Records
---
Amino acid sequence: MRPFAYSRAPDVQAAIAHAGAGAEFIAGGTDMLQLLQEDLRSPATLIDINGLSLTGIGTDGDALQIGALTRLSEVAAHPDIRNRFPVVSEALEATASAQVRNMATVGGNLLQRTRCLYFRDATMPCNKRQPGSGCPAQDGCNELNAILGGSADCIAVHPSDLAVALVALDARLVIAGPAGERRIAIADLHRLPGDAPHIETVLDPGELITAVRLPMAMADRKSAYVKVRHRASFEWAIASCAVTLSLSGQTVQDSRIVAGGVATRPWRLPQVEAALAGQRLDAPTIRAAAETAAEGAAPRPGNAWKVPLQQRTVARAISTAAGVP
Ligand SMILES: Cc1cc2nc3c(=O)[nH]c(=O)nc-3n(C[C@H](O)[C@H](O)[C@H](O)COP(=O)(O)OP(=O)(O)OC[C@H]3O[C@@H](n4cnc5c(N)ncnc54)[C@H](O)[C@@H]3O)c2cc1C
């Protein structure tokens, strides 16, 4: 770990004013401290944002708003989340461990860095850490890397479970920055790696996520979050799927189906949604729709097994949400 300056921001304006130019935010610190310890980040200054009034969950107009500094455990346990947006609780309860969830925040979770082995090893080249240095995962140890959304420069998997559930709810982010406040769809937060994998989001330098908004129009949908991982706890997804369904009887009026653990960002599956639209849900219909889940996949030699795993994970998530055995 390299030396850095530390300051506590008293309010959002002060946090934004001091960010950028070698300064980075720290919230729960569960990812940031690892990055510092492993010499993967070396900011000149850490701005501690834990003193900002960005905690809590409450109705605000047409949305349920979650402050960006709310701890994952509090979000998962909140009655309005459990009862009206249970896919969020399910994704969070499958995240990390109880201890990590007590410390980790919503904003930090969405902006945590990838677990790609090469990114996490400061002795290895990695285009995300050091643009232009190469991507050894392409022909190296790529079992856990992405089959969707990759480029010749990067095939690192996006790690957040919460982000996958939020895309299935069409959630919005409230962002504060030097130019004022703006709102974006969570689906637009994470960028594809392309030829600039070190630029992971559409956030401008110094911008702070202040809240996540769950549209009340998406409340009470049938939903499910299914996560497959190597260990039952304390482990990121090797495949996951968040599903929200609007049903009339057993017939699909609308659906949002999003894959995690297999792609470079939360991966919406419009072809699966199209295959379900207007259909009465039964096992053969779900199986046929899920067969299309890996369309466009470009597996590497080490991770072709993710293709059938993703299809089965998607099928299981739709079946669980719809209550179809
Ligand atoms: C052992 C272990 C297992 C884990 N397993 C999982 C898992 O299964 N699924 C999963 O999703 N995650 C998992 N995680 C990751 C964990 O959820 C994240 O580390 C955590 O959510 C990050 O939140 P934080 O508040 O600690 O962020 P920090 O570490 O403080 O910050 C992370 C990043 O976000 C930035 N940041 C933080 N808040 C804001 C904000 N409001 N606005 C702008 N930038 C901000 C920081 O600058 C930093 O770049 C695991 C972590 C550990 C240690």
---
Amino acid sequence: MNKTYTDVLIIGAGPVGLFSVFELGQLGIKSCVIDSLNMIGGQCSSLYPEKPIYDIPAYPKISGQELIDNLSQQIKPFNPKFILGERVEKIKENREGFLVSTSNNQLINCKCLFIAAGNGAFGPNKPPIINIEEYENKSIFYHITDKLMFKQKRVAIAGGGDSAVDWAIELASITEKIFFIHRRDKLRAAPNNVEKLYSLEKKNKIEMIIPYQIDSIEGSNGEINSLNVKNLNGEKKSLSVDFFLPFFGLSSDLGPIKDWELEIEKNLLLVDQSTSQTSIEGIFAIGDVCSYPGKLKLILTGFSEAAIAAQSCFKRIFPDKVLHFEYSTTSGVKGL
Ligand SMILES: Cc1cc2nc3c(=O)[nH]c(=O)nc-3n(C[C@H](O)[C@H](O)[C@H](O)COP(=O)(O)OP(=O)(O)OC[C@H]3O[C@@H](n4cnc5c(N)ncnc54)[C@H](O)[C@@H]3O)c2cc1C
């Protein structure tokens, strides 16, 4: 059985988990990052790598993936260990701090834990189609990493939220045709984007298939021939498409973290905002997974929580040292 020793184990390689490597490193604290996905980047890389973010301070516009690439560059001097494709399952308090075990039976011994688990070890909500696995990552995608694969193709997008609407607008300029499928008349996405969607319908770039829901798929060898949809009256339509992109959101189950006896409210970990510490000493929660009065689920808020948690855990990592607050302009980048 593999065993890793580190000062802080960071659960979640999303933007906030990654930035906490920097904040810890600047204080001389070693970290190891684990994620159930096979890649780093959390929601930014999995859900919207090519979409521009406009509210990262000092970046008027930066794509989800660029942000992650920059964070990756920023934390390089600290050389963190990454354990990818493994979910954290159990924790046990011990003399040194915590002993953590993973879905692949790895053991990690750490003095503190940073939970930066976002919405939990996430996976897409899938449409109820028999044999959907045959088509996944061939003609059905739950997230987009390279939009050029849809150039001049016929694409069906399903869902009623921001992801479905945003991607329909984004892809409309390169696809041959987009079918936008939703089971209700009303869309939940940002109103100005819903307006844009309907203006693209008028220009014949998008065909609205509303109110319809997914019924079945016909195809072979992972390629779709037709996507069949039906409405509440049982009327059916068969759409000839090359790709199907269902955007039904993510499951937001915290999984095993729920059993760790941390104070939880509405699937979020309650923390003291002044320290980012949870109800268990030595366990901190930062980013989308944590909650306190006035909490905003934004990347910039998570970055600030990472800095606060790093300062707060210092005493536990180095009980004999005194923490002197320093600007990075004074300290430079320390590296480990
Ligand atoms: C479409 C969309 C657009 C957005 N636009 C913006 C925007 O413009 N500005 C903005 O500030 N925010 C935006 N957000 C929100 C932003 O992406 C989140 O606030 C941010 O990703 C939270 O970062 P995080 O590191 O806390 O968690 P996440 O990015 O969710 O990463 C958490 C990671 O933890 C992993 N994990 C969870 N549980 C476990 C476990 N038990 N074991 C191992 N790994 C685990 C998950 O697999 C995941 O990779 C947007 C979100 C979406 C979906």
---
Amino acid sequence: MLRGAVPLGRIAGVRIYAHWSLVATLGLIASLLATAILPQEVSGYSTVEYWLTGIVTATLFLVSLAAHELAHSIVALRHGVAVERITLWLLGGMSELSDEPPDPRADLRIAIVGPLTSFAIGFASLGLAYGIHSVAGSLFTAAIAWLGSVNVILAIFNLLPGAPLDGGRVLRAILWRRSGDRLRAMTSAARSGRVLGMGLILIGLAEALMLGSLGGLWLMLLGWFLRTAANVELMNASMRHKLGDAKVEEAMTTSPVVAPADWTVEHFLRATVSGSHHRLFPVVDGQGLPNGVVSLADLSRVPPESRSTTSVGSIARALPAPAYAHRDDLLATVATKVILRPGLDLVAVVDDSRLTGIVTATDLVHACDRTALGLYVRRRSSNLSPQWPPPEEQGQ
Ligand SMILES: [Zn+2]
């Protein structure tokens, strides 16, 4: 999830978040509507009415973006694909799915329903504007007509055949169905997304230079975003190629060295850190469940005179939801999460309400190197105290 996103609520079991950058989008669209897009020569409307119409229409546009994302999420849930959340931000909406679609048919349905929703909202709004244009004021009909056409444009843009756009997912589903090879389909769709992103950047650049239009800069921004996201998709596919079906338990460090939250920094440094070669430690509560992570850098920020009064728990960084995994999860999925979130440096493996291991970036590099050599990814143990649970309870 983007940093700085606030929860808006829950619809059909899906949590919806808004990023602060959405305020900029709302303001920009509302002001463009009030001062440029809505017909300016209509008499009988005050500036306040123009701005009110602009703000309401811009808000409705954001609602239609949320509807597009919600459609993806609801169909995903129906196909058994868990949905983490929907985030609305500067460039639109994002549905964050926790799993991959199980088959090409589900992949296609989840992808296509978003643009179909935008088309439906678009044509319904255009029809409404056409139907009432002789009855209602022209400012009102112009606003609804704008909302309709922008949703149709949005649907068409999203259908461009490059991942991570919806059209790229459609392309992936079709290639996946044809070849039976999901990874190859994913790689092709992501390559197409990179080309598309570059194309948008070039068209935007030409528009900005030749017409001096701000819309060109907007296209360049969209193209850059698409290219970056397509690169992440390519990385995801290459992780799958490298790690195959390896499970988390094959690569995790078992019995990790932990930092009890209620220990003081001084005690932890003396009892654990001094005899350990680790840089990162999962922080556990009284039950041995991980709830944070502390690094040597975090510890070094505590001044020596405060070490005996500062608890490890108070300086720990909280673990976000994607930082938890089960031992039988796919290692490639965990690897992609770590790549996608630069701030995420440790994944806690929790099974039956206890910490069974951790996966760090080093573990992932190690796993990739081993599979490249044709070796099995093998479990490693750090064998350093303190451990959780204590060794006598481990039954090994
Ligand atoms: Zn979509």
